[in-house]
Amino acid sequence: MNIYYPPQFWKNKKLLFGITGGISAFKVAGYVSHLVQAGSDIQVIMTESAQQFIGKNTFSALTRKPVYTDLFESGEKILHIHLMREYECFVVAPATANIIGKMAGGIGDDLLSSCFFVDPKKVIFAPAMNVDMWHNPIVQENIKKLIAIGVRVIIPSSGNLACGERGEGRLPEQEEFLEALYYLLCSPQPLQGKKVLITAGPTREYIDPIRYLTNSSSGLMGCSLAAAARARGADVTLIAGPMSVRIPSGIHFLPIVSTQDLKTAVLEQYDKTDICIMNAAVADYRPSNISTVKIKKQGKSELILNLIQNPDILSELGRRKVSQVLVGFCAEDGDIVTEARQKLQQKNCDVMVANQILTGESGFEVDKNKAWFLNKNGEMIDIPLMSKMELAEIIIDQIGAFYFS
Ligand code: CTP
């Protein structure tokens, strides 16, 4: 499972969860369990119908706190006002068509719906229902109304629904749900309105229809950069070859295979890009001929492949640069900083991130990196070994601080 939020993000977060009566209420127990273990302070409130699907004891055991269900149960405090003042946000998950309609229509007749009226800007809805219910014009109209007054929405995902039908309406799986929540809770958003183009993963150069040359890049660093940029408000496009990791949600994804495909896709986007991060592990060479049929041994004891050099995409972007912030990556095992400085200059980049490979704990196929961040003013930050997601946040924040503050 790839997680595109830094685990420490959840430490000491105060989150109020409202559970309404949908079958996917059981999934929320998983989210709450994860968040409590990550250090969040979670308070759960439930409607009457939510308790038809999951017991209140499940949530009180997970949060180690009583679950509130009744508007009038607290003696001293006015409960709905107290909870909405005390907690950072109010996540309604699953949010049924009924609760969405009640809130859009101004009805607060129980604890959960009354909380909404205290501060709609703190409310995050995660609707979950049958596909036709979700696309019902009244539900859509209600969602628009709520968004217009500052309510945030985690859009349901597509797939098999509890009713046996297929389509949009599922409560997202845990990692996608928490990723969406991370995007919504991240503030400030210094890259709001900026277009960020990120390349990730390996490229693949075919020899024949089934065999190819590639490298062991998983794509994790590029995907982490995409999630970190998205969390800071950017409109992110990720272009990547075949990766072994999950693609983060909330971004535009353009798949490619070869270095030449990558060049075409990147150049198509480049003019409308504010920040371009070339993190892909690009194949420098490709076979001069691709066999259209499977290459047979046919008694040959050796096979000689003729390789020709691929275009250097980053150098091309450096030549075409107008106002883009251009960021290169280099994976090195020798004199890392000297190599990175040379590449920064030669490829006309604004930033070069050098990461250490071949140590076993940093680089390809592991979830950590040791890196150096260099900019074209000659400044350098030596970043210790850390998870790729933590490193991605530092890189994106540094780019934001240098160029957009
Ligand atoms: N890069 C590129 N096109 C290539 C090769 C690399 O755009 N054909 C980009 C990478 O995405 C990375 C940067 O250039 O951002 C540095 O990649 P690296 O492989 O370290 O550098 P090379 O120029 O290929 O040099 P070498 O492999 O000889 O060290």
Give your account of this protein's structure:
The chain is an alpha/beta fold and 405 residues long. It folds into two domains: 7-185, Flavin prenyltransferase-like (Rossmann fold); 195-404, Rossmann fold, CATH 3.40.50.10300. Helices cover 33% and strands 23% of the residues. It has helices at residues 25-37, 56-63, 79-86, 97-104, 111-118, 131-135, 137-148, 174-185, 220-231, 259-270, 313-320, 336-346, 388-403, and strands at residues 14-19, 41-46, 89-95, 123-127, 152-153, 157-160, 166-170, 195-200, 205-206, 212-213, 235-240, 252-255, 275-278, 285-287, 307-309, 325-332, 351-356, 368-375, 380-387. The strands form five sheets. An eight-stranded mixed sheet has the order 12-11-8-13-16-17-18-19, sandwiched between helices. It has a five-stranded parallel sheet with strand order 2-1-3-4-5, with helices on both faces. A two-stranded antiparallel ribbon has the order 6-7. α3 crosses α5 (111-118) and α8 (174-185) crosses α9 (220-231). It is elongated and about 80 Å long. The structure holds cytidine-5'-triphosphate. Cytidine-5'-triphosphate binds at residues 259, 278, 280, 282, 284, 310, 312-314, 328-331, 343.
- In the sheet with the most strands, the strands line up as 12-11-8-13-16-17-18-19
Second-tier CATH architecture of the largest domain: 3-Layer(aba) Sandwich
Rg for CA atoms:
25 Å
Count of alpha/pi helices: 13
N- to C-terminal separation?
34 Å
CATH superfamily of the largest domain: CoaB-like
Largest β-sheet summary: 8 strands, mixed
Give the mean pLDDT: 95
CATH third-tier fold name of the largest domain: Rossmann fold
* Number of separate domains: 2
Low-confidence stretches: none
CATH class of the largest domain: Alpha Beta
Q: Choose one word for the global shape.
A: elongated
Which ligands does the model contain, each kind named once?
cytidine-5'-triphosphate
Estimated structural class: alpha/beta
Helical content stands at 25-40%
Strand content: 15-25%
